[in-house]
Amino acid sequence: MKTWSETAEVQPLASRIITNSIQKDRLSHAYLLQGERGTGKEAVALLLAKSLFCTKRSGVEPCQECRDCNRIESGNHPDMHWIEPDGQSIRKEQIEYLQKEFSYSGLESDQKVYVIKSAETMTANASNRLLKFLEEPSKKATAILMTENSSSILPTIRSRCQMIDFKPLNPQAFQQQLVEHDVSRSNAVLISALTNNLDEAIAWSTDDWFAQARKLMVQLIETFSSNQNDVFLFIHQKWLPHFKERTQQEQGLDLLLLGFKDILFYHLGKTKDLVVFEQNDTRIENLVMFFSQEKLLDNLNKLLDAKRKLKQNVNPTLVMEELIIQIQG
């Protein structure tokens, strides 16, 4: 999404709210962009910054060609600051540095913009620092916070921001996009359940690591049903060595969620909604015989709890071991 007109096709509400404010010169001093990963939050943050800095703007649309637009696009504008998690969280020192930067005049204008990605990862001290910053806004400072989970952000911070919800993208339309980029239909269905980012989805479709991750997920679920005594061995010999990074570990849990959802959908007769297994796959027929609907719902809740623990920086090996015990129990 490079323009507001393109954004209006994908996220009409977000586009309308922001462009109306630009037209009326009534932009908020702080925005909280909330939505799933890949729904366009970062693209909108860039567009808003360009609209604020561009000196050749046509109506609400930035020119995309001037020095300011190009530097914002490349992440090199001196008066636009990006804050991202340092490791697993955004620390107080990062917000303090931001406050120090904003105590100076803009290098090229009075306008300053700061973007905080994954705002839900702010530590308690960082959140309190940011709250003080938001309570004393500069007329020429615009804050853009982005999150997948606004409920994890301090209510006092949320109350000082204009919240804009980003709706999930249409999965069928996204799947068709992937097919047009030579992704197989079965891969397109699975990948569209994990991301809405086109570039990322195309990369996954040719990634051997992702293909192996999908295979391991199915093998783990089958091991639960065929030989529970081998599950711990499987986790330590195959699962944990493959899912090494934190993002990979979260993706592994996402894949397990989809696998167990498929079995539940098969129970309910919703075979058209399957994303991991094919409708005529004998493996899922065997799994349906082993996992009851009640057990599947319990497994899904346990997986969501495991995802929360990973977000809280709990040791991933302990998270997986506890999850295995709970599913086996």
TrEMBL record:
<keyword id="KW-0239">DNA-directed DNA polymerase</keyword>
<dbReference type="GO" id="GO:0008408">
    <property type="term" value="F:3'-5' exonuclease activity"/>
</dbReference>
<dbReference type="Pfam" id="PF13177">
    <property type="entry name" value="DNA_pol3_delta2"/>
</dbReference>
<dbReference type="GO" id="GO:0009360">
    <property type="term" value="C:DNA polymerase III complex"/>
</dbReference>
<keyword id="KW-0808">Transferase</keyword>
<dbReference type="InterPro" id="IPR050238">
    <property type="entry name" value="DNA_Rep/Repair_Clamp_Loader"/>
</dbReference>
<protein>
    <recommendedName>
        <fullName>DNA polymerase III subunit delta'</fullName>
        <ecNumber>2.7.7.7</ecNumber>
    </recommendedName>
</protein>
<feature type="domain" description="DNA polymerase III delta subunit C-terminal">
    <location>
        <begin position="213"/>
        <end position="328"/>
    </location>
</feature>
<dbReference type="InterPro" id="IPR015199">
    <property type="entry name" value="DNA_pol_III_delta_C"/>
</dbReference>
<dbReference type="InterPro" id="IPR027417">
    <property type="entry name" value="P-loop_NTPase"/>
</dbReference>
<dbReference type="GO" id="GO:0006261">
    <property type="term" value="P:DNA-templated DNA replication"/>
</dbReference>
<keyword id="KW-0548">Nucleotidyltransferase</keyword>
<keyword id="KW-0235">DNA replication</keyword>
<dbReference type="GO" id="GO:0003677">
    <property type="term" value="F:DNA binding"/>
</dbReference>
<dbReference type="GO" id="GO:0003887">
    <property type="term" value="F:DNA-directed DNA polymerase activity"/>
</dbReference>
<dbReference type="InterPro" id="IPR004622">
    <property type="entry name" value="DNA_pol_HolB"/>
</dbReference>
<dbReference type="Pfam" id="PF09115">
    <property type="entry name" value="DNApol3-delta_C"/>
</dbReference>
